Every structure is written in structure tokens, then in C-alpha cells.
Amino acid sequence: MTKQQLREIVLQSIPDANQFNSLFLIVANNIAKAEGQQTALVGAIGPRHTRTGFMMGEHHLDPHEKARVQDIIHDLYREGKLYPGLGDGMNDDWPFYHTPLED
Length: 103
What we know:
By secondary structure, the chain is mostly helical. About 40% of the residues lie in helices and about 5% in strands.
């Protein structure tokens, strides 16, 4: 997967999480979905991600892919498309994040 393809998946995944650990899981699920994989846990009871249909934690990024996602996150931060913290006055730093508010 090219960096640009991975960046698109990260951008698609950002609104569905608010901290890195859950973002990594959602990115892994979205990669699996993009590759046409189906959930292996049909009928399983537990939290499913509403957009991907996969169980949370069903897919994981390997260390190399996780590092690439981290690089993309840092790029988005430098571009002003991602800010540390939730902006709620309580969780004001990484690993939480938020996107800029639209005017």
C-alpha cells in the first residue's frame, strides 16, 4: 500500500476515534475492508465498529504499518489538520487528538 493510499485511510478513520490506540485499530479494520476481507467473527458478541463491521481488535497493524501511520499523524499535525488533546479542558494532550473546527 502506498503512503498516499494509507494516508487516505487514516483521514477516513480519524473522525471515528479520539486517541491513537483506537485509531490504530480502526485503521487496521479499514485496511482489511479496503482489501475485501470479511469479518472472521460472524455472530460474535462484542463491540463492532459501525463503519467497518469488524470487531474492535479483530485486526492489528504490524509494527512497520503502525510506524507509517504515526508518520502520517505527524504530517497531519505539521499541516495543521490535527491538534493534540480533545479541546475539552481535561484531555489536552496526546494521545488524544481533535481536528480543527470549521468556521
